[in-house]
């Protein structure tokens, strides 16, 4: 049975039709128009019934290995018994309480633990529910700090080419991906955009280190002229994920930290995707041995269970914004700030890191997986194979840019047929699996990606 026929089976059809009629799915087009033709490429919509470990099971009992951690959030598998138990216990105590004038153990413990991970350099945690909000909060706090200090002109921000920081209007303003900005551009605050340290720009004998230096120089040139108008630069440390798993040398982080100090602007590290062990260390900034002024976390922090985000910052910033009169103190009133259930899932997640020595495990698994993938990367249509921690990516040469989206959709649906959940970004195929794959699951993932690649390439 081919893909489309399979998904048209009656029992599935009912749920698919009901979902399409009532749910507005994000980033989903079930029929994808093929450019310059009247044809459509049909893409499946899959009703998932349950999950365990890295596996997702649909309502017909078919399984898919979740090789992208359900949009990069799931670290320790679906329906993880340790997190389940912690949540059940918390449910019997307190589901939610507002965080204004009240507090509770889960939020205190989580803040203390995360602060200790930064050696108390970032000792204050402010909570929200999604990544984009954390970015907005960091931007507001940075502006607010300079405002309270009397630098009323410091209200612009810098971001990198191909950056992604979320899709609310403030976060979208510091995002530089055409697809997401698109029609909304006219609604957004103007932002300075500087050169990405993308290490694929290797040419003329440059190495990744030199590329990072050139990109940092670009920042310095801008600040020489305009630092009096700029509050902060926001970056995704080491990997620009949504921009296409763009990786760069950690020296860039070191240089940017220095330049920010020299020119009096804040460094906001958006570790929403790269934090929580994804790059091989708990925080990606640790690869460069630096701390930002603001660090945003979300996605993996609850193990992929519940929406939670936070911004961590320094004593200096906290004190200047907090200990002022009411007019000058920070405002961001989020109903579910520091939700106890979400904090409890986050605490359980951090306990798993500790109990099972996860960072150690990651350092072993990443070598194994890289080795196994190496035979695939010899294919002449594959370029720029790259890896950082538990992220692998490569680009597939597709000459006609209009064909890249079709390739991505084909890859997605062919992978599903091979029991693998993957969602390439244009012609960039990537793996970002949970940290708990066993030997057989690693083998399945590698075989399925090989098979999918060959099927998609030969079907052209
Ligand atoms: C996903 C992501 C965000 C936005 O998080 P949401 O929870 O989807 O709003 C922001 N920054 C980065 C780097 C991300 O990957």
Automatic annotation (TrEMBL):
It is found in: Cytoplasm. GO terms for biological process: biotin biosynthetic process. The keyword Membrane does not apply. Its cofactor is pyridoxal 5'-phosphate. It catalyses: (8S)-8-amino-7-oxononanoate + S-adenosyl-L-methionine = S-adenosyl-4-methylsulfanyl-2-oxobutanoate + (7R,8S)-7,8-diammoniononanoate. Pyridoxal 5'-phosphate binds at residues 131-132, 270, 334-335. The record marks 27 as: Participates in the substrate recognition with KAPA and in a stacking interaction with the adenine ring of SAM. Keywords: Aminotransferase, Biotin biosynthesis, Cytoplasm, Pyridoxal phosphate, S-adenosyl-L-methionine, Transferase. The keyword Cell membrane does not apply. It is an enzyme of class 2 (transferase). The modification N6-(pyridoxal phosphate)lysine is found at residue 299. GO terms for cellular component: cytoplasm. Substrate binds at residues 71, 164, 299, 333, 423. One of its GO terms (molecular function) is adenosylmethionine-8-amino-7-oxononanoate transaminase activity. Pathway: Cofactor biosynthesis; biotin biosynthesis; 7,8-diaminononanoate from 8-amino-7-oxononanoate (SAM route): step 1/1. Its EC number is 2.6.1.62. InterPro entries: Aminotrans_3, Aminotrans_3_PPA_site, BioA, PyrdxlP-dep_Trfase, PyrdxlP-dep_Trfase_major, PyrdxlP-dep_Trfase_small. Homodimer. NCBIfam families: bioA, PRK05964.1. Catalyzes the transfer of the alpha-amino group from S-adenosyl-L-methionine (SAM) to 7-keto-8-aminopelargonic acid (KAPA) to form 7,8-diaminopelargonic acid (DAPA). It is the only aminotransferase known to utilize SAM as an amino donor. Belongs to the class-III pyridoxal-phosphate-dependent aminotransferase family. BioA subfamily. This is Adenosylmethionine-8-amino-7-oxononanoate aminotransferase. The lineage of its organism: Bacteria, Pseudomonadati, Pseudomonadota, Betaproteobacteria, Candidatus Profftella.
């Amino acid at each position: 049975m081919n893909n489309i026929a399979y998904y048209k089976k009656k029992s599935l059809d009912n749920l698919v039709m009901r979902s399409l009629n009532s749910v507005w799915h994000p980033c989903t087009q079930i029929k994808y128009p093929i450019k310059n033709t009247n044809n459509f490429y049909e893409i499946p919509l899959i009703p998932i019934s349950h999950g365990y470990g890295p596996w997702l099971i649909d309502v017909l009992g078919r399984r898919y290995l979740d090789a992208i951690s359900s949009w990069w959030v799931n670290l320790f598998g679906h329906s993880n018994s340790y997190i389940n138990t912690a949540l059940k216990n918390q449910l019997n105590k307190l589901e939610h309480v507002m965080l204004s004038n009240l507090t509770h153990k889960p939020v205190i413990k989580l803040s203390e633990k995360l602060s200790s991970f930064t050696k108390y350099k970032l000792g204050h945690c402010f909570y929200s529910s999604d990544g984009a909000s954390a970015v907005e909060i960091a931007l507001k706090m940075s502006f607010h700090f300079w405002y309270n200090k009397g630098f009323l002109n410091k209200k612009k921000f810098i971001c990198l080419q191909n950056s992604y920081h979320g899709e609310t209007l403030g976060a979208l303003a510091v995002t530089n991906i055409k697809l997401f900005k698109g029609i909304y551009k006219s609604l957004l605050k103007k932002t300075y955009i500087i050169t990405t340290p993308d290490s694929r720009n290797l040419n003329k004998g440059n190495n990744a280190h030199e590329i990072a230096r050139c990109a940092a120089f670009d920042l310095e040139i801008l600040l020489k002229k305009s630092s009096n108008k700029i509050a902060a630069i926001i970056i995704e440390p080491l990997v620009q994920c949504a921009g296409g798993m763009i990786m760069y040398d950690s020296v860039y982080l070191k240089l940017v930290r220095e330049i920010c100090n020299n020119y009096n602007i804040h460094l906001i590290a958006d570790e929403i995707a790269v934090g929580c062990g994804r790059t091989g260390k708990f925080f990606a900034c640790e690869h460069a041995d630096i701390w930002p002024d603001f660090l945003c976390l979300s996605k993996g922090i609850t193990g992929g269970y519940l929406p939670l985000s936070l911004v961590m910052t320094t004593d200096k910033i906290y004190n200047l914004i907090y200990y002022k009169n009411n007019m000058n103190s920070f405002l961001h009133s989020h109903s579910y700030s520091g939700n106890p259930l979400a904090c409890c899932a986050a605490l359980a997640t951090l306990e798993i890191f500790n109990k099972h020595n996860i960072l150690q495990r990651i350092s072993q698994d990443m070598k194994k997986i890289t080795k196994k993938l190496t035979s695939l990367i010899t294919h002449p249509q594959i370029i720029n194979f790259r890896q950082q921690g538990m992220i692998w990516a490569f680009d597939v040469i597709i000459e006609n840019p209009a064909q890249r989206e079709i390739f991505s959709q084909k890859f997605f649906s062919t992978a599903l047929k091979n029991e693998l959940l993957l969602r390439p970004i244009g012609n960039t195929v990537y793996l970002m699996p949970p940290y708990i794959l066993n030997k057989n699951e690693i083998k399945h993932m590698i075989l399925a990606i090989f098979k999918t690649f060959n099927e998609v390439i030969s079907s052209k």
